[in-house]
Amino acid sequence: QVQLVESGGGLVQPGGSLRLSCAASRSIADFNDMGWSRQAPGKQREMVASFTNGDSTNYADSVKGRFTISRDNAKNTVYLQMNSLKPEDTAVYYCNARFKIRRYWGQGTQVTVSS
C-alpha cells in the first residue's frame, strides 16, 4: 500500500510561481515511475512531468521550460516547481506513482492562476 500526499497548491497571479510537494509513505526509490498529472475542468487528466527509468524526466510540451520536477530521496518527496504560470495551468494537480503492478494517486491539490 502506498499513500501520496500533495501540498503547496493555491491562488497565484499570472507570471507567478508555486512549488508543489508530494510526500510518499514509502521509499520513492522503490517506484517504477513517479510524477505529476493535472486535470482542468471539463478536460481529461494529462501528464505534466515525471521521473521514469531512474533519473530520466519527461515533461508535457505545454510546461517545458517553465516547470521542473525534482526529488529528495531522503525525504521520500517529489517536487514540482512551477514558474511563469499561466491561466491555462489552472487545474487540480495529482501526484502519482507506479509501484509493482499498480498506480497510486494522491488526493490532488488545486492550483488557480488568476489576476
Keyphrases for this structure?
single chain, 115 residues, mainly beta, 4-stranded antiparallel beta sheet, 11 strands, 0% helix
Give the helix/strand class. Answer: mainly beta
Write the element-wise H/E pattern from the N-terminal end onward: EEEEEEEEEEE
Shape: globular
Runs in which pLDDT lies below 50 for 5 or more consecutive residues are none
Strand elements, count: 11
Rg measurement, Å: 13 Å
**Discrete helix count:** 0
Structure notes:
The strands form two sheets. Strands 2, 4, 5, 6, 9, 10 and 11 form a seven-stranded mixed sheet that branches. The chain has a four-stranded antiparallel sheet with strand order 1-3-8-7, with no helix packed on it. It is mostly beta strands and 115 residues long. It is 0% helix and 54% strand.
